[in-house]
Amino acid sequence: MLFDNLFPFFLWEVLTMRKIMVGGVPVDDAAGIMSDFWSKIGVSISWEEFKRFLKRENPFEVVNWIDAIVAREKELHQNFFGKNFAKKFDYSQFVQTLEKYGEAKFAEWKELGLEPHFLPSVEMSQDKNFPGWNVKPNDWFYEQVDEGKILGNPCNLGGIAVLVDTRCKPAYQNGEQMWEDDNLLGDITNDLREKGEIADYKPRSSRFNISALEIEQKIASALAVKLGLEPGQVRLEKAIESNVLPQILTDTPRAYDGETNTWLWFSDLFGSAEYHRLDGGYFDNGGLADVNCGWADGCGDLKSFRLLAVL
């Protein structure tokens, strides 16, 4: 079979990565040489197929869409938690969730910038050390956890299947900054502002200048309807989720979330559930490590939000 005869070209890739000259050809030209090879033997191969080839897998095998998602999730978890720790995770609930909603629905959500992911039931306490957890929440966060001031279970990832907004939060631009390609929430905030149901702002499709209460009472339920979910399934991300997800999803724009000088609202209730929510993520305060609290009814041009759907 064709695949059985391709191992020499896998060896070529290894030589390429090791910066070796082969037959007087600089290895930097390897990509062009490989592309020329595929075209000469009349084979069309995608980047994903080529990556499978490099792993000594049959690049032309049709991979089930669920298997592809779960395989990527396992790889991301192994990179973040470490192989030995991640191998104990049970993905059966995640698979059932993928089956429940179906390929077409996830394709629809992907067009809105959402990806399905699995957050294992791991307690992200300050004493934990994982290979990919390079930035932990600040000491203040863990001090409040120890004192019981952050309500609920603020450090556990929950063992839940979720839809994650993969966009990076924008850098501050005099209040005019916008979330990139925001076909997820732009129409919702615009509509609610036109109706006078949330604080007005220009542009009206902006995620900025919206309070945590307005998000919880108006926007989350509107997004749930748009996604075809129940209102209780959509919420703000917890502080620990907002810290961990960019460090797990290193192949998405979210990987750079800690490098922008704007804040995010989090879902965590602080002290009085009625008056305070956690916020953070500001670059100058530590980026992904930054966690603080704010008045739940407050808003401004430096603070926006990201919603999470629990499936």
Please explain how this structure is put together.
- With 311 residues, this protein is an alpha+beta fold.
- The protein folds into two domains: 52 residues, no CATH class; 241 residues, no CATH class.
- Helices cover 36% and strands 12% of the residues.
- The protein has ten helices and eight strands.
- The strands form two sheets. Strands 1-2-8-3 form a four-stranded antiparallel sheet. A four-stranded mixed sheet has the order 6-5-4-7, with no helix packed on it.
- Strand 4 and strand 5 form a beta hairpin.
- It starts with 6 loop residues before the first helix and ends with a strand.
- The N terminus is likely disordered.
